[in-house]
């Protein structure tokens, strides 16, 4: 399906799982996904637990990663921004705080690979987290840290990231990602999905999965400026729904039922789910308020994903999700409203 740098991308056993594919189908898939060689962008930057400068209360030196005990492939990918402007500063932060990611993507598009076989290591990037039926996602999800300031409380132009912008419903100033790092991140996401059969629904943001009770909602990365729609449409990275005409007059869902739909899709933090959803799937207004546009976009997501044939997942139509949505429709007697779409 593409040329593979085995030490970086995964073990031979992972790659052999694709042996049944014909040369022709592999070539066609690679062309369709617009894969380009990533090897030239990969910079080995292996992390070293001995360099961690964080200590426990008892004085024991902490680690920034640990080796997995199980052999299961990763189940998902978490996208983050670093809240910094360069890779060296980010790696210093890893050692100072006892955290890590599997890769760090520089503004130039270079991919700093922190493990030769990322699927064999647990990086500490997700914190207290949950998605679907999984909790404490570090042991299940790969982490991609993209070097980006995130936001500032005032408008400050920065080299490489330009002038930030404000988004309706939020007072902060958000920075763009560079074109090179966006492409590298999207390509790497799609490659990992392909290697490990990761479904698009399990490509999430730190904001999507964070379970920390925080009135200031600090965990907002990777933020509303990452172009999830383009990543999906151009590189088949993650998942982004096709737009449907949604007439809210045909639906009479309560606010709690919209939150229930978000839970069915995967969101577990009820207090933050609307704002997290907006930053990922409805970035024109990130107020956290359940307005009509957000309601339309929630319905659109749930309807489109019900019919989505995933290119990477083992089961192309998601049976768990479909079953839960069908049960929701039946329980609240919304068959007529949804019948046009599913």
Concise account of the structure shown:
This protein has a 6-stranded mixed sheet. A two-stranded antiparallel ribbon has the order 2-6. It has a two-stranded antiparallel sheet with strand order 7-8. The chain is of the alpha/beta class and 342 residues long. The chain has helices at residues 6-9, 12-16, 23-33, 87-97, 179-196, 206-209, 228-235, 255-265, 273-281, 292-306, 319-331, 335-338, and strands at 42-44, 65-67, 76-81, 103-105, 111-113, 121-123, 130-131, 134-135, 141-146, 151-152, 173-174, 203-205.
Describe the structure.
The protein is an alpha/beta fold and 342 residues long. It has two domains: 1-238, Lysozyme-like (3-Layer(aba) Sandwich); 241-342, no CATH class. The chain has twelve helices and twelve strands. A six-stranded mixed beta sheet has the order 1-5-4-9-3-12. A hairpin with a 5-residue loop joins strand 4 and strand 5. Helix 8 packs parallel to helix 10 and helix 9 packs across helix 10. The model is unreliable at 1-33 (pLDDT under 50).
CATH-level-4 superfamily name of the largest domain:
Peptidoglycan recognition protein-like
Q: N-to-C SSE series?
A: HHHEEEHEEEEEEEEHEHHHHHHH
Number of strands: 12
As a whole number of angstroms, the C-alpha radius of gyration is 20 Å
Query: Pairing-aware structural class of the strands and helices?
Result: alpha/beta
Mean pLDDT: 89
The largest pleated sheet is described as: 6 strands, mixed
DSSP helical segment count:
12
* Model regions low in confidence, pLDDT < 50 over at least 5 residues: 1-33
Level of helix content?
Answer: 25-40%
Order of strands across the main sheet: 1-5-4-9-3-12
CATH topology of the largest domain: Lysozyme-like
Q: How far apart, in Å, are the first and last alpha carbons?
A: 33 Å
Strand content: 5-15%
The CATH architecture term of the largest domain is 3-Layer(aba) Sandwich
CATH class of the largest domain: Alpha Beta
């Amino acid at each position: 399906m593409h040329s593979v740098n085995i030490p970086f991308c995964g073990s031979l056993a992972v790659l052999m799982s694709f042996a049944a594919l014909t040369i022709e189908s592999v070539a066609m898939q690679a062309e369709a996904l617009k894969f380009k060689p990533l090897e030239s962008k990969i910079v080995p930057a292996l992390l070293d637990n001995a360099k961690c400068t964080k200590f426990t209360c008892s004085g024991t030196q902490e680690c920034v990663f640990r080796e997995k005990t199980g052999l299961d492939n990763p189940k998902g990918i978490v996208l983050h921004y670093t809240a910094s402007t360069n890779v060296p500063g980010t790696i210093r932060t890893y050692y100072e705080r006892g955290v890590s990611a599997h890769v760090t993507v520089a503004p130039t598009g270079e991919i700093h690979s922190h493990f030769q076989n990322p699927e064999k290591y647990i990086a500490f990037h997700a914190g207290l987290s949950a998605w679907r039926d999984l909790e404490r996602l570090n042991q299940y999800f790969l982490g991609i840290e993209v070097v980006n300031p995130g936001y500032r409380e005032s408008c400050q132009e920065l080299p490489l990231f330009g002038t930030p912008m404000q988004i309706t419903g939020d007072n902060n100033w958000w920075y763009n990602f560079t074109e090179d790092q966006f492409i590298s991140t999207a390509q790497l996401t799609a490659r990992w999905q392909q290697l490990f059969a990761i479904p698009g629904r399990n490509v999430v943001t730190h904001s999507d999965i964070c379970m920390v009770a925080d009135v200031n909602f600090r965990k907002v990365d990777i933020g509303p400026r990452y172009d999830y729609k383009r990543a999906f449409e151009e590189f088949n990275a993650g998942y982004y729904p096709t737009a449907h005409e949604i007439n809210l007059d045909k639906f009479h869902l309560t606010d709690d039922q919209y939150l229930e739909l978000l839970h069915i899709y995967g969101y577990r933090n009820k207090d933050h789910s609307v704002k997290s959803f907006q930053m990922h799937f409805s970035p024109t207004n990130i107020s956290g308020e359940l307005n009509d546009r957000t309601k339309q976009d929630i319905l659109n997501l749930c309807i489109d994903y019900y019919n989505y044939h995933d290119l990477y997942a083992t089961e192309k139509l998601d049976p768990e999700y479909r079953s839960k949505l069908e049960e929701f429709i039946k329980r609240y007697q919304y068959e007529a409203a949804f019948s046009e779409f599913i």
